[in-house]
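User: Predict the structure for this protein chain, please.
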Amino acid sequence: MLKASEIERVSMVLDNPLRDLEMQIMEDIVRRIKINGEITRSADWQIYRLHELGMSKREIKKAIADNLDLSKAEIKELYNEILQKGYEWDDSIRPKARHGYPLKKMRVCKGCCRLYRSRLRGSLKTYLSHLDLQ
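Assistant: Here is the predicted structure, written as structure tokens:
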């Protein structure tokens, strides 16, 4: 089991690569919007993933507005366009599933979960060995 200080050191190691990843995704979103003049399906998916990585929707909209020199009204218009096209990833407008499919019945998913868990353990051991925490 890792101590709190060790977990903090691991998170510090992972912080910069994740920040770089967020910036690369944001640059690609802005590039796609510049080229197409709208939020494309792929840009919308990237916005969704960026939000999943921990960036707030407000931060994402502000970054898009700042990089494209758009006003709040123009940003709102961009988002309204994708709502009209029906592919915006906003969870608040999507119906929630009432019942999930039990993981016990999904053999393929269980196998994938085991595989990713073992790979993650290997990656974590590699990071820890670089930090001399093992």
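Residues 79 and 114 are 38 Å apart (CA to CA).
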